[in-house]
Specification:
- By secondary structure, the chain is α+β, with helices and mostly antiparallel strands.
- It folds into 3 domains: 94 residues, Orthogonal Bundle (Arc Repressor Mutant, subunit A), CATH 1.10.10.10; 162 residues, 2-Layer Sandwich (Alpha-Beta Plaits); 121 residues, RRM (RNA recognition motif) domain (Alpha-Beta Plaits, 2-Layer Sandwich).
- The chain has 12 helices and 13 strands.
- The strands form 4 sheets. A 4-stranded antiparallel sheet has the order 5-6-4-9. A 4-stranded antiparallel sheet has the order 11-12-10-13, with helices on both faces.
- Strand 11 and strand 12 form a beta hairpin.
- It is found in: Nucleus.
């Protein structure tokens, strides 16, 4: 861009704007301007140029455009003899838009964040004035075309961008603290942020799923506890030689046992009946002459009620689910009938429950996915 002391402020802005239109960043993507170039060997009338809104906001006088370009030292543009047309100099052809070119752009670009959202392109240009020769400023916008408060600035050379990063006067803008990074460092930072975000999202999804499953299990547990009341019969005594099968045999014909919570050698346990535990107990006791023993051992029997019943039922339901999950993990060949504490295979475990420079940009593979798409090429305004 032109930066010449002999120019007036307006002429500097005009030259910079017109050279942007014909520059390496805008021209390859500017459908309208490229169509105009085809009409007259690359020449475009100043009358046509003055239809561009941003240039028109700077001047409506074609003479100012001619004067500004005559004073420019870039040599990018030629002026026709009658001073009514301009074109890009044939001696400065557009670079080939290949990977090498894109890589060069990346190495001479910097990322700057911290501008207030209402900041204009003119204000950013003014802040950057004198800090290096700039080829392009890309104001980053969201999908609603609102300024995000950050820009990519492409300098004339990689060395210029490095010198800019070393400056001490780029740390603030209107009392706002600025984040300034090379484009490479920016992409590395964003890649790390995306990686962390992905991990956090995955962890949260897993946590949410576990929480939903927990709530579902708690709800199901509550329903089961409400449904299965009066079904538990607790027993205690000297039961060293007693197995789960013995309980099934003892109550055979008197009540169906769904689950035996007992480990061989223990002194107590609980029976879950598919029906009323008290009725099953009374029938069995009557059948055995009024005293219900098991293998000639005296046993104390108690039908559980209230909170004691709920707590024991909860343990049994959890044991059923654990047994189900364990057997499913082994292809269904697992042992059942208790809480995984040993003992012989029992019949109780068969039922498991229910259980500038704006609008034009070169897209890099590592660019933000949330960036808004480039403006339609027909609207080639530097900041409008």
């Amino acid at each position: 861009m032109a930066e010449n002391q002999e120019m007036s402020p307006v002429e500097m802005k005009v030259a910079r704007q017109v050279e942007y239109y014909f520059g390496d960043h805008n021209l390859p993507r500017d459908k309208f301007l490229k169509e105009q170039l085809q009409l007259d060997d690359g020449w475009v009338t100043l009358e046509t140029m003055l239809k561009f809104n941003r240039l028109k906001s700077l001047t409506t006088d074609s003479g100012v455009i001619v004067a500004a370009l005559q004073k420019s030292k870039t040599g990018l543009l030629e002026i026709s003899e009658d001073k009514t047309k301009i074109r890009r100099s044939p001696n400065k052809p557009l670079p080939e838009q290949n990977d090498e070119y894109k890589d060069a752009l990346k190495h001479k670009s910097v990322y700057i964040k911290g501008f207030p959202l209402e900041t204009t392109l003119d204000e950013i240009q003014e802040w950057l004035n004198g800090k290096g020769t700039i080829e392009n400023i890309q104001m980053r916008r969201n999908l609603q075309r609102q300024f995000k408060g950050s820009v990519f600035v492409c300098f004339e050379t990689e060395e210029s961008s490095k010198q800019f990063l070393e400056r001490s006067d780029i740390k603030s803008f209107k009392d706002n603290e600025m984040l300034v990074l090379s484009r490479e460092d920016y992409h590395a930072k964003k890649a790390e942020e995306r990686k962390q975000f992905k991990a956090e999202t995955k962890a949260k999804a897993r946590q949410d799923k576990e929480q939903q499953q927990k709530h579902a299990e708690e709800k199901e547990m509550g329903l089961l506890l409400d449904e299965q009341t009066g079904c538990l019969l607790k027993f205690s005594g000297e039961l060293e030689d007693v197995s789960r099968e013995d309980f099934h045999e003892l109550f055979s014909g008197h009540g169906k046992i769904k689950w035996v919570d007992f480990t061989r050698g223990a002194k107590e346990g609980t029976l879950l009946f598919d029906g009323n535990a008290k009725e099953a107990f009374e029938k069995a006791k009557e059948a055995y002459g009024g005293e219900l023993k098991i293998k000639d051992n005296s046993v104390t029997w108690k039908v559980l009620e209230g909170d004691e019943e709920k707590e024991e039922m909860k343990k049994i339901i959890e044991a059923q689910q654990e047994s189900f999950n364990r057997s499913r993990g082994r292809g269904g060949r697992g042992r059942s009938g208790g809480r995984g504490r040993g003992g012989r295979r029992g019949r109780g475990g068969r039922d498991h429950g229910r259980t500038q420079y704006q609008g034009k940009k070169t897209k890099f593979d590592s660019d933000d996915e949330d960036d808004a798409p480039a403006a339609k090429v027909a609207k080639t305004e530097n900041g409008s």
